[in-house]
Design goal:
Elements: H1 10-13, H2 19-51, H3 55-83, H4 85-104
Helix pairs in contact: 2-3, 3-4
């Protein structure tokens, strides 16, 4: 006896349109975080020239930056599990925006 596939309605497979802005916001946040990490790598040379730092010292700067980033990412995941993903995403996005606004000024 052959098993038949369960009949699913079309509504079960479609996503509500209200999820698209959330997906867009999360994708933009991931791109910004990756861009932020890339900026540190690109800016390493001018930073080294300004502080007369060796290549070894610059490698440590990039490694420590990535280590702190990873630690904060894990902490953010834990806080999101405890207090809610949406709330922590908004808090993180606001902190990220404030930090970068101060860097530009």
């Amino acid at each position: 006896m052959a098993a038949s596939a369960p009949a699913h309605s079309l509504a079960e497979h479609t996503r509500p349109a209200s999820r698209r802005p959330a997906l867009t916001a999360v994708c933009a946040a991931v791109v910004l975080a990756q861009l932020d990490t890339s900026v540190v790598n690109v800016a390493a040379r001018p930073i080294g020239d300004y502080f007369r730092a060796s290549v070894d010292a610059l490698q440590w700067v990039v490694a420590i930056y990535n280590l702190v980033y990873a630690a904060l990412l894990l902490t953010g995941g834990l806080l999101a599990d405890l207090y809610g993903r949406r709330r922590m995403f908004l808090v993180g996005a606001a902190a990220f925006s404030r930090r970068h606004r101060r860097c530009v000024q």
